[in-house]
Known about the structure:
Distance between the termini: 29 Å
Number of helices: 14
CATH superfamily of the largest domain: Glutamine synthetase/guanido kinase, catalytic domain
Helix content: 25-40%
CATH topology of the largest domain: Creatine Kinase, Chain A, domain 2
Amino acid sequence: MKNWLRKHPQVRTIRVAAADLNGQARGKRIPTRFADKVVEDGTRFPMSVLNLDIWGEDIDDSPLVFESGDADGLLFPTERGFLPMPWLDAPSALLPIWMFHEDGRPYAGDPRHALRAVLDRFKDRGLTPVCAVELEFFLIDDSGRKLQVPLSPRSGKRRKAAETLSIRALDQFDEFFTDLYDACEEMDIPADTAISEAGLGQFEINLMHCDDALRAADDAWLFKMLVKGLARRHGFAASFMAKPYEDYPGSGLHTHFSVLDKNGNNVFDNGGPEGTAIMRHAVAGCINAMAGSALVFAPHANSFDRMVPGAHAPTGISWAYENRTSSIRVPSGSHKARRIEHRVSGGDVNPYLMLAAVLGAAISGIEDGVEPPPPITGNAYAADLPQIPGDWESAINLFETSPEVARIFAPEMIRNFILTKRQELHYMQELTPQEQVEIYLDTV
C-alpha cells in the first residue's frame, strides 16, 4: 500500500472511508504525509458512525450512542488498498477501511463483515461464489425544481422519452461515458457493457464476474461513488435512487452468481439447460428468504415506488428459466456458465448487504437441500404468487422477525438496521415526495 503512494507523488490528500448501513462512505480526510500511520495502525471513529440514518444523524435509541459512551471502533485498510479519486480536481486517493473491536474481532455492524461471514459459510463447504452485478442509474438535470434529462453536450437537446438500447442515446453523452470508462480503468473497476435503458435518461453498466464476492461488492460500492462524483464534474447529477420519475421504470441492481467447487467446477452445471440439484437448492434458499430480506433489496421510502406490477421490477416471489418477469431468473446460454440472476434489488441498495442477503439465502438452501416450487412460465405479474412486501413498514417488520434473515445476519446487524429504518420511516412520513427525492437523489 505504501508503494502505491510513492508511485503517485502527485496525490496530496487521502480519504479513509467505510460503508455505513445505507452504503454511505463515512470516514476522514488525511494529509498524505500521515498515510503510513493509517496503514500500520489503522484509524478510529465511533461504532455509531456505521449506524447513522440517511441524513447522517445518530439513531435516537441506539445502544451504540449514549448507552455505550459512543465507543470507538478500530478501522483497518481492506485488501483493496489505495485508489485514485478521478472525480475530484485535486489529486487524491481513497483508502477503503472496515471496522474491528479493540481485541481484533470483526465488528458485526459493519456491512462488509456481514458479507465476509456469509462467504465463510461457503468456504466451510469448499465452495466459492462467482458474482457479477448490473447497475442501472439515471443522468439527471436537477438544477430546477423539476427533474429532467440533461442537455446533450453534442446536440444541446433533451431526450423526451426513453430510448431502450439506443446507440444514439449513449453517444449523446459520449464524453461522460468515455471519462467514466477511463476512471474505471484507473480504479480497477471491471466495467463492461453499457446500454441505454427504459427510463428517462437511464443507463446500465455491467461489471464483470468475479470469484471474490467481497471484491465484487467493493466494485459496486466504488462504482456508485465514481458515477455520482464524475457526473457532477460534467455538470449534471447521476442517481441510483430506485425511482426518480413516476411515469418511467426505476433502477435495479441485478446480481448474477454461480458457485465453484474446490476444483473450479461450476456446481450449477449439469451439462444441460436445467442445472443441477444444487442450483435448485440455491434457488429455493433465495425464494424462502426473499420476503424477509426485502428491506435489504428495497431499503428506502422511494424503493417501493419501483416495485409495482408491469414496471420491469418483480413483485411476486417466483423463479423461472429465461423469464425477466420472475424475481429469480436462470438465464439461457452455455451450460458452463449456468447461473442464477437475482432481480429484486433496486439501484439504491448497499451492495455489501445485498450480496450478503442473496448469497446467504443461497447457502442456506444448499445447506438444507431444499427444493423450490416449480418454475413459472409466462407473465409473473399475472400469476397468483406470494408477494414481496409492498411497503416499507411491512418490510421492516418482516426483516426483524424472519428466521431466514437470522441465519444470514448477526443479531447486532439486524438490530442496527431495524433501528435505522424505523427512524427514517418516522421522519420520511413528514416529507413530501419532492422532499424525499431531494434526500435520495445524491445519497443512495
